[in-house]
Structure formats: structure tokens, C-alpha cells
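Let us work through a complete example step by step.
Step 1: write down the sequence.
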Amino acid sequence: MAVINVYCDESCHLPNDRHPALVLGAIACPKEHARDVAVSLREARIRHGLSPHLEIKWGGVSPSKLDFFLDVFDLFWEDPLLRFRSVVASKKNLNHETYGQDHDGWYHKMYYQLLRYLITSNSGDQFRVYLDVKDTRSSARIKFLHDVICNGMHDFAHEILQNVQSLRSHEVPLIQLTDLLTGAMSYAARPRTPDDSGAKLEFISVIERRIGRSLATTSWLSEKKFNVFVWEPQR
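Step 2: predict the structure and record it as C-alpha cells.
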């Protein structure tokens, strides 16, 4: 039995933020391997002449740091113990009333879609989920999210999913890595504009070449390394 840490991030989660899709991302990593990943990321910063404490995040992708961020993606891609899953959920044509929910209820359903294939009840493993702190409502959201996921797996005693906790991303390298990949997914889901960052588009292009498909397409569930689910509301 192993303990698997799952590090999560989200983008464009507010209902009226003018972004077309909620994007959720998660990286699963065995607990005992998390420190090795943190050390590798620190060494990558130093190798590129950056501060060893530089926070890795999507907003930092720029022409001057593109090689560094591509190196970071290589570290993820070549590490057999790391898995990424993302849910890209359209916010257009949502009909919460029909399903007896509000935006928060829908948000938690999307989080369940994100985690249900990373947290498996038949593996014998135990899981701990770590979220990036987003707002003052984190504690209430966390308890509800923990219950939603556990109830969906019939893990009523919280024996499989042991813990859901919020942490500050600048203190957790694997949340930073999740932010980078989730940010790429969110950027790829936006309509293109003349003001788009060339460095960010190149980063996305490298990912797409590696995985052999567009980030805007759903992958097979059997794809473990970089799994994507593009969700659309039923009409």
C-alpha cells in the first residue's frame, strides 16, 4: 500500500469572469517521491541561472524563461511516477436550475470528474489531496469537496481519501508544477487574440507534440501520463 499525494489547481472558476471554461488540473505523485521532485525543480532553477526559490507558475512563462519552463516540463514528462489529469469544462449554456444546483455545486461536480480517475478505490492505496489556497471560503469548500468525492466512491469513512487540505503554492513545488500545466490547459482553451504570448503558445505547442494531440481534445481514459477530459453541458 502506498500513499499518493494529489496536488490540484484551478483556473477561471468564477461564473462571470469572461473566460469560456473552468479548468482544473491535478498531479498525482507518491508521497515518498515528492521531495525528489522538489529537489529536481530546485536544480533546474539553478541550472538556468534563476533563484532556487523562484515560484514556478504559468504567469511566469516568458521569452526569457521559456527554456527553463520547457526544462521543467521535461522533468515532469520523463518522471514515470508523475501523472497529470485536467478537466476543461465549458461555462457556456449551463442550466443549474434543471439539475438543482448552483455554480458551487457544479464546480464540485467538476472536481469529482477531475479526481475520480486519479483516486481509485481498488488500488489498495491511500490518497491525500492538496489544493492551492484561493479565497477565504477554502475551509468550507474543502470539507464539502472531501465528502463529495468520498461519497462518490462509497468511501464513507474517508479511509481511501484520507485528507483534503489547502496549502500555499509558494511553499509546495508540486502545486507550482500543477499551476504551470493547468495554466497551459486554460490558455489553450481561450480564443486566440493578437495579444497572445508567443512564449506561452510555444510551450503549449511543445506539450501537444509530446502527447500527440491538441490540448482541446479529450484523451482516452487509458492515457495515464497526460489525461484530459473536455466536458460540455448537455443541451
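Step 3: interpret the result. The domain at 3-231 is CATH 3.30.420.10 (Nucleotidyltransferase; domain 5).
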